[in-house]
Amino acid sequence: MEQYAIKGGNPLVGEVEIGGAKNAALAILAASVMSEETVTIENLPDVCDINVLIQAMESIGVNITRVDRHTVKINGNHIHGLVIEDDFIKKIRASYYLIGALLGRYKKAEVPLPGGCNIGIRAIDQHIKGFRALGAEVKIEHGFIITEATELKGCHIYMDKVSVGATINVMMAAAMADGTTVIENAAKEPHVVDLANFLNSMGANVKGAGTDVVRIKGVERLHKTTYTIIPDQIEAGTFMVAAAATKGDITIKNVIPKHLESIAAKLLEIGCEIEESDDAIRVVATKTLSHTQLKTLPYPGFPTDMQPQMAVLLGLSTGTSIVTESIFENRFKYVDELTRMGGDINVEGNTAVINGVAKYTGATISSPDLRAGAALVIAALTADGISVVEDINYIERGYEDFHLKLRSLGAQIEKVNNERELRKFRLKVG
Ligand code: EPZ
Fold first, then answer.
1. Of these residues, 48, 117, 155, 272, which one is catalytic?
2. Which of 127, 128, 138, 164 to mutate to test the pocket of ligand 1 (most atoms within 8 A of CB)?
3. Residue owning the nearest CA to atom 21 of ligand 1
4. Is the overall model pTM greater than 0.90, yes or no?
5. Active site includes 272?
């Protein structure tokens, strides 16, 4: 199995380009099958989750042409089935976006219950509530979500929980319904807004995305578009924290600073220097950082997908920090691994009490999920000695060329496939 071999201690310095937002791209790829014409999507991140969804879409007859590494042309007019098979789809949770898209256009869909990172229960009751409110029949049989409707009628839906996935799925299902749908208590994440903008670029009529109330006026058909996906807020945040943790100086390019406000605010609070321009953000950390309190919240609050990275950083800051995870039930799985590197963290329920230590020490550690894996790479980049990060497939689900981008900033990191390559790395870095 591939691993990252890392020798810690180098401050990360230089510039890094951020790719397209994975979580926007997954929704937009799914929604593209709703168009009657060919859709071109640009700034698509080349990561495993995206490529699995593309394979799943091709398996039902969606015609997808890769123009270049980050651009695809999609035509969903010759779909030969509305049943997505297990083998692609159990791997990624975002498979369930195909339900909203296929139900919205074809009034029918069968998709396996979602898989994905094991960071919590990952319920889908709010998705089902929205589909049923629109008039669809929804059943769960043999591990599949089966949904069908003779017609979809606009309605008023109040989400019991703020859910990114449910907001996105219901938005798609409602885009071609008869009449107007209002989603209250909607998620406001940048990728929810990006999907709404994408739907509107195909002729949909979605208003209010990015606020608590989204209004979708159903239209008869959706037409072609060329759409560029927004930069990835979480990839950008991950490099911001890597700059802070390694006491480096990184200019992160191709970002939307507004999307990074909660992350930048926290880094400023603990002692980083931050410079913003229109599409870049620079993070400099020259001194030991201080402790803080942190609670993950739906956007515009501090993102749950940045919680592990921030906890790793706070584990090197002076004093005691408190991190509360309010979105998912099981998002502290990295703590055991960090403890093996010398971290001093105690988890009680959904709260971690973090006592800052002077340094981490290198160890062999395993990535428990996508963002925790990225956080452990950051820990290894700061650590004394050599670390080996296993299960990097999780990390590569959401980060394109992660080790190459880190190496371009001065990190001593290589992807190794076996003991021999690891020995070579150890000899090389000494
Ligand atoms: C999306 O997951 C992202 N995934 C996650 O990113 C992200 O952590 C999450 O939003 C929160 O921002 C994708 O976009 C593919 P939710 P999603 O529905 O849509 C509960 C990453 O690292 N809930 O907003 O699954 C749910 O259990 C991934 O890129 C219900 O109870 O998140 C959770 O506790 C990890 N019922 C909370 O709401 C439902 O019907 C938020 O979930 C739906 C959700």
1. 117
2. 164
3. 305
4. yes
5. no
If pLDDT is split at 50, 70 and 90, which confidence band does 85 have? confident
Two structure tokens written together for 251 = 């200019």
Let me know the angle formed at the C-alpha of 264 by 266 and 255, rounded to the nearest 5 degrees. Answer: 155
Q: Which among 191, 186, 168, 158 has a CA at the least distance from the CA of 305?
A: 191
Element (DSSP H or E) covering residue 417: none
Q: Average pLDDT for residues 208-223, to the nearest whole number?
A: 98
pLDDT at 250 over 70: yes
Token reading at 247: 């006491």
Checking if the pLDDT of 90 tops 80, the result is: no
Show me where the domains of the chain are located. Answer: 3-19+231-429, 22-228
What residues line ligand 1, using a CB cutoff of 6 Å? Answer: 22-23, 26, 93-94, 117, 120-127, 161, 163-166, 187, 189, 304-305, 327-328, 370-371, 398
Task: Please enumerate in sequence order all residues whose Cβ is within 8 A of that of 215, keeping only pairs 6 or more positions apart, or say none.
Answer: 180, 181, 182, 206, 207, 208
> In this predicted structure, what is the pLDDT of residue 115?
63
Domain covering 22-228, topology? UDP-n-acetylglucosamine1-carboxyvinyl-transferase; Chain (3.65.10)
Average pLDDT value for residue range 39-47: 98
Which atom in ligand 1 lies closest to the alpha carbon of residue 120? 27
CA distance 370 to 242: 16
Q: What pLDDT shows up at residue 91?
A: 76
**Superfamily classification of domain 3-19+231-429:** Enolpyruvate transferase domain (3.65.10.10)
Q: How far is the CA of 208 from the centre of ligand 1 (A)?
A: 20
Question: Which residue is associated with the tokens 């802070």?
Answer: 244
